[in-house]
Design brief:
Layout: H1 2-9, E1 18-25, H2 30-47, E2 59-68, H3 82-111, E3 115-116, E4 124-125
Parallel strand pairs: 1-2
Antiparallel strand pairs: 3-4
Helix pairs in contact: 2-3
Length: 135
């Protein structure tokens, strides 16, 4: 089923999706931003098949302006230490980012228009509007 879609879209199987996730929360050490990128990439996995193949460049970049130092409300008292809070904040933002990434990919597909492209299958890159809906 999906192999037909890959062939329909392009003559080879390499495609790249680049995602950029921005936040204004200060997540502390670098490894929390790496974790955020991994969690956000789940949105790509939910929306793209196949994803993260060896030949493609599917990537998630993360940045923060670190404007908000304590993004949690008063319920943060349920976490024992500052690192626990940062892990929790990273998890919350990461899963929200995954949902946003997934929805942004769906939205981009719904809004895309077919374009002429010499290397595309039959000389075009079709939009999902040209591909029959599946139940």
């Amino acid at each position: 089923m999906y192999e037909d879609l890959t062939e329909f879209v392009t003559q080879d199987t390499s495609n790249t999706t680049i995602t950029i996730v921005g936040t204004n929360a200060d997540l502390g050490p670098h490894e929390n931003y790496v974790k955020l990128a991994h969690l956000a990439s789940l949105g790509q996995a939910r929306a793209i098949y196949p994803v993260n193949l060896s030949q493609d460049g599917d990537t998630v970049f993360v940045f923060s302006n670190k404007e908000i130092k304590e993004p949690l409300n008063s319920r943060r008292e349920f976490f024992s230490g500052p690192n626990d809070i940062l892990y929790f904040v990273t998890d919350i933002i990461g899963h929200a980012a995954a949902k946003a990434v997934q929805e942004s990919i769906y939205s981009a597909c719904r809004e895309a228009e077919t374009i002429s492209f010499e290397d595309g299958y039959q000389g075009v890159i079709p939009s999902c509007k040209d591909y029959p809906a599946r139940n």
